[in-house]
C-alpha cells in the first residue's frame, strides 16, 4: 500500500504472468500502469472501465464485470491453464503498444506538425489561442532603443539580423537609414531622452549624404559591409524615402548644422523625384515635402514639386479606382497606407478637398479589405501573392511595414476629420504588433526592443531586422506623438471605447 517507483514497477511487471486492474469506476479514462503492462507484453484481465475497453479490444485482454470476484478468478485461471491463448494475447498487446513508446509518439507528432503546416499553407486560417486579448487601454510600451542601437554601427544601420544578432552579410541600405533618421528625429524629447540620439541622427544623415550620387541626382541604395556601393542609383522607393527623412531633418530642432545639410541635400535631390515613374516614390517624397514646407513655406520649387506629384497621384486614382476597387493600381502590394496618407497631407496643404476626400475613401477601402474575420483584427495584405483585382487576397506573409503605414494614415485621417473612428482603426493596427493579429502571436519583442520580421501561416519570423524594428518603433513613436498632441484625452484612456465610437460615427463613415 505505497507508491511504486518506475524501477520497482518494471521489476513487478517483468516477474508477472498476468496483470489485473480491478478498478470500480467506469469513468476511469487513463491508467499508466495498464499502459506499462501492455508495453511489457503482459496478459491482462480488467474490469471494463473506459480506458480498459479501448486498450483491451480486439482480444488484447479479458474484461470482467465490476465487483465480480468469481468472474475475475475464472478468467485468471483460464489464462493460466491455456498458455497458448495467454501468449497470443501477450503478443497482440505488445504489438499494439509499439506505437505508444516515446520515440514513436515523437515521430507521430512530427508527422502531424508537418501535415498541419502543409495544410495551413494550402488553406491559411487563424491558429486557436486560448487566451483572450486585452485592449491596451491607456498604456503604451516604453520606448526601448536597445535593439535599434545594436543594429547600428559606425557606418549606419544594418539591414538584417539573425534572430536578434545583426547580420553583416547584406550590409546597409538607404531605405533603412532614411527610416532610422526619421525614428531618431521623432524620438528626440520623448522618454528616455537619450543624448546619443543626436549622434545617431548625424550618422544616418551622413549615410544619406554619402549615398547621394551627384552626377545622377539619385541616391544609391545598397552598400556592402566593407563600405562599397553596389549601385549607381537605387530604387525609386529609396529616393522617395530619403526625401521623406531629409524633409523632417530640415525642420528639426536638434542641430543647426544637421538642418543645413539636410536642407541642401533635400534641395539637390528634389528634382530627381519628378522624373520617377513610381507612385510610391511620389508618396514618400510628398511626406518629406510636407514637413520641409513647414519651415521653408516660401520655397517655390518645393511648392511646385508638391503640386506636380500630388496631381499625379490624384490622377492615378481617378483613372483606376472604382467603387469596388478603390485603388490606383491593379494590385495592392506594399506600404499601401502611404498613398492615402500622402493624399491627406496634400489635401490640407493645397486646400484641395477632392484630394482629402480621395484619401479618406482610399483609406476606408484599405481598412475594409485588411480587417480580419476573427475578432476584427488588422490583417494586412500578405507578400505571398499580394491582392490582385479579381483575385484572392494573400493573407500571409504579413509585414510590419504595412501596419506602420496604415497606422500613420489613420492618425492623419483623425487629424483631418476629428472622427474617433480613425483612432479605433489606428489602435487596431498598433495592437497587431502586440498579439491582436491572425495568429495571436507577439511581433514586438519586449526583451530585445526589436520586432520580428513577419507573420507566416504557422509562426512568426523570429529574425529582427532593421525594417521591421523601425516599423514598430515608428508606430510606437506615432502613438506617443498623437497622445501628446491630444490634450482632451486623459493619459489613462487615450482612446474612446470602440463600440460607442463606431456607433456614433457609422453614418458619417458610410457617407
Give a verbal description of the structure:
The chain has 19 helices and twelve strands. A three-stranded parallel beta sheet has the order 1-2-3, sandwiched between helices. It has a three-stranded antiparallel beta sheet with strand order 4-5-8.
Task: Throw out a few tags for this protein.
53% helix, disordered C terminus, three-stranded antiparallel beta sheet, mainly alpha
Report the average pLDDT across residues: 90
Strand content: 5-15%
Oligomer state of the chains in this structure: single chain
Q: CA-to-CA gap between the ends?
A: 78 Å
Classify the helix fraction into a percent range: 40-55%
List the strand order in the largest sheet: 1-2-3
Low-confidence stretches: 128-137, 487-511
Class of secondary structure makeup: mainly alpha
Using only CA atoms, what is the Rg? 32 Å
Main sheet record:
3 strands, parallel
Tell how many strands the DSSP assignment holds: 12
Shape: elongated
| Tally of helical segments | 19
List the helices and strands and how they pair.
Blueprint: H1 6-15, E1 18-21, H2 32-39, E2 43-46, H3 50-55, E3 62-63, H4 69-81, H5 83-96, H6 102-122, H7 146-150, E4 158-162, E5 165-173, H8 174-187, H9 196-211, E6 212-213, E7 218-219, E8 222-223, H10 236-249, H11 256-273, H12 279-295, H13 300-320, E9 331-332, H14 338-349, H15 353-369, E10 387-388, H16 400-417, H17 420-433, E11 454-455, E12 460-461, H18 466-484, H19 498-510
Parallel strand pairs: 1-2, 2-3
Antiparallel strand pairs: 4-5, 5-8, 6-7, 9-10, 11-12
Helix pairs in contact: 8-9, 8-10, 8-18, 9-11, 10-11, 10-12, 12-13, 12-14, 13-14, 14-15, 14-16, 15-16, 16-17, 16-18
Amino acid at each position: 500500500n505505497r507508491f511504486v517507483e518506475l524501477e520497482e514497477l518494471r521489476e513487478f511487471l517483468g516477474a508477472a504472468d498476468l496483470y489485473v486492474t480491478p478498478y470500480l469506476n467506469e469513468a476511469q479514462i487513463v491508467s499508466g500502469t495498464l499502459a506499462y503492462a501492455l508495453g511489457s507484453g503482459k496478459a491482462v484481465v480488467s474490469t471494463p472501465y473506459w480506458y480498459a475497453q479501448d486498450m483491451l479490444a480486439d482480444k488484447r485482454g479479458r474484461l470482467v464485470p465490476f465487483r465480480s470476484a468469481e468472474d475475475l478468478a475464472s478468467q485468471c485461471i483460464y489464462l493460466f491453464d491455456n498458455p497458448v491463448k495467454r501468449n497470443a494475447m501477450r503478443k497482440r498487446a505488445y504489438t499494439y503498444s509499439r506505437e505508444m513508446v516515446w520515440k514513436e509518439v515523437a515521430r507521430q507528432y512530427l508527422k502531424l506538425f508537418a501535415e498541419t503546416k502543409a495544410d495551413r499553407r494550402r488553406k491559411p486560417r487563424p491558429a486557436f489561442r486560448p487566451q483572450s486579448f486585452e485592449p491596451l487601454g491607456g498604456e503604451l510600451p516604453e520606448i526601448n532603443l536597445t535593439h535599434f542601437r545594436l543594429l547600428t554601427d559606425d557606418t549606419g544601420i544594418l539591414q538584417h539580423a539573425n534572430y536578434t544578432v545583426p547580420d553583416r552579410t547584406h550590409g546597409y541600405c538607404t531605405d533603412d537609414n532614411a527610416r532610422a533618421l526619421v525614428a531618431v528625429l521623432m524620438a528626440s524629447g520623448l522618454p528616455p531622452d537619450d543624448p546619443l540620439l543626436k549622434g545617431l541622427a548625424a550618422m544616418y544623415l551622413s549615410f544619406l549624404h554619402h549615398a547621394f550620387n551627384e552626377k545622377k541626382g539619385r541616391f544609391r541604395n545598397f552598400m556592402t559591409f566593407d563600405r562599397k556601393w553596389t549601385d549607381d542609383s537605387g530604387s525609386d522607393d529609396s529616393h522617395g524615402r530619403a526625401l521623406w527623412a531629409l524633409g523632417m531633418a530640415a525642420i528639426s530642432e536638434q542641430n543647426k548644422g544637421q538642418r543645413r545639410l539636410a536642407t541642401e541635400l533635400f534641395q539637390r535631390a528634389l528634382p530627381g523625384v519628378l522624373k520617377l515613374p513610381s507612385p510610391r516614390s511620389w508618396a514618400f517624397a510628398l511626406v518629406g515635402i510636407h514637413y520641409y514646407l513647414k519651415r521653408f513655406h516660401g520655397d517655390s520649387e518645393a511648392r511646385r514639386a508638391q503640386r506636380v506629384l500630388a496631381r499625379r497621384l490624384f490622377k492615378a486614382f481617378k483613372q483606376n479606382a472604382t467603387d469596388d476597387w478603390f485603388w490606383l493600381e491593379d494590385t495592392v502590394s506594399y506600404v499601401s497606407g502611404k498613398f492615402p496618407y500622402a493624399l491627406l497631407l496634400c489635401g490640407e496643404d493645397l486646400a484641395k478637398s477632392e484630394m482629402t476626400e480621395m484619401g479618406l475613401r482610399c483609406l476606408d477601402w484599405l481598412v475594409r479589405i485588411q480587417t480580419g474575420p476573427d475578432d476584427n483584427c488588422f490583417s494586412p495584405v500578405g507578400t505571398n501573392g499580394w491582392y490582385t483585382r479579381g483575385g484572392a487576397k494573400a493573407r500571409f506573409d504579413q509585414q510590419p511595414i504595412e501596419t506602420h503605414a496604415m497606422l500613420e494614415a489613420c492618425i492623419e485621417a483623425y487629424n483631418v476629420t476629428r472622427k474617433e473612428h480613425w483612432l479605433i482603426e489606428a489602435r487596431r493596427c498598433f495592437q497587431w504588433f502586440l498579439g491582436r493579429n491572425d495568429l495571436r502571436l507577439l511581433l514586438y519583442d519586449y526583451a530585445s526592443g526589436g520586432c520580428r520580421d513577419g507573420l507566416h501561416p504557422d509562426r512568426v519570423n523570429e529574425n529582427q531586422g532593421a525594417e521591421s524594428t523601425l516599423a514598430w518603433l515608428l508606430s510606437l513613436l506615432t502613438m506617443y506623438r498623437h497622445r501628446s498632441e491630444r490634450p482632451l484625452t486623459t493619459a489613462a484612456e487615450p482612446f474612446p471605447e470602440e463600440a460607442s465610437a463606431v456607433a456614433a460615427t457609422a453614418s458619417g463613415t458610410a457617407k
